[in-house]
User: What shape does this take?
Amino acid sequence: MSDDASHFQTLFIIVLVVNIALQRWLGKRHLKHVEGHRETVPESFVDKIPLADHQKAADYTTVRTRVGRVDGLIHAGLLLFWTIGGGLNWLDEFWRAMEWGQLTTGIAFMVSAFFIFGLLDLPMSLYNTFVIEQRFGFNKTTLATYVSDLLKQSVLIFCLAVPLLAAVLWLMESSGPLWWLYAWAVWMGFSLFLMWLYPVAIAPLFNKFSPLEDEALRTRIGSLLARNGLNMQGIFVMDGSRRSGHGNAYFTGFGANKRIVFYDTLLEGLEPHEIEAVLAHEVGHFRAKHIAKQIGLRGVLSLLGLALLGWLMHQAWFFAGLGLAQPSLAGALLLFLLVVPTFTFFLTPVLAAVSRKHEFEADAFAAEQSDASALVTALVKLYKDNASTLTPDPLYSAFHDSHPPAPVRIAQLTSLDE
Assistant: This one.
């Protein structure tokens, strides 16, 4: 191994160790903070959430955090095995022995790698669904539904990902030094196509979506939608209760396929004025162009990432330092996808801060368009029903939470209502 490869390998190990240590320290802080406040409901929620529900949320958060810490160590160990440990090198040699063309070999190499990654993730997924979620009363998924979903996801990913992968590898091979720019254009076009397709062709494979039928509620929210350029054809109710007791709402798609989706579990627990307030929050994301901004941010980051890959694929130390004996286009792409999250983890709080800013903006819009107090009561019900902790560690939350912590968010909404 060359000195450059050795130095890069050492850097990778150091960054990975720092990454693991930071995540474990944050998790330890979070556990201590949540457990330390388990016996007392925060003052701003004392008349809204019973102690028993607060304790359930603390226990649920504690279990998920502990399991997440174990999962983090497992993934770090697997990353070392696949890279420095030689796992990917063995897989690469296996497919090279078939003596196929570079493109076919590269596709087979990457598809088989991700298939194995998925199999290794399966035990933790089963444990989360049928042990943790079951224990706290959230899981409604049967084993048959789980297997059916897994098979559909696998077929869908294969059908969508293989053509994309083939296109990117072909561009890397044949389109010259600016391949990364062309690949970025293909990736962005593919991402936009998926966003457009998802609400009408992909999501319905897993859930049933029905138009909102409650006439009184339709009348109530009709004016809100009309003055914000939306119509009732874009509001759907999803049968989330088939798989989980958690409730949620989200905005998805764009163009003629844009939709606001309510989980049926959410509608069952909220009053009409609270549903209107939640809807106003989702409309706020639309009016503030948050989806477009997120697409733009992802576009910039992916462009920078592909440009970096365009340079790394010509550096022998990149392959050798990460355990791959023979450089290849597919090897460069797969190694890059595997190790980039280790280096970019430190950007997580920045991206989380952007997301939380968007949530505050959507809340402010909802306060103007409907009723801030109604959104407060709706959120409190959601925190209770979803067993969301009211007392996250602030630093842990800054790294991991895309939404503002419950006390901060409620305080902000309350100030808007004054």
User: Anything to note?
Assistant: The first strand starts at residue 209 and ends at 211. The chain has a mean pLDDT of 92. The chain is about 70% helix and 5% strand.
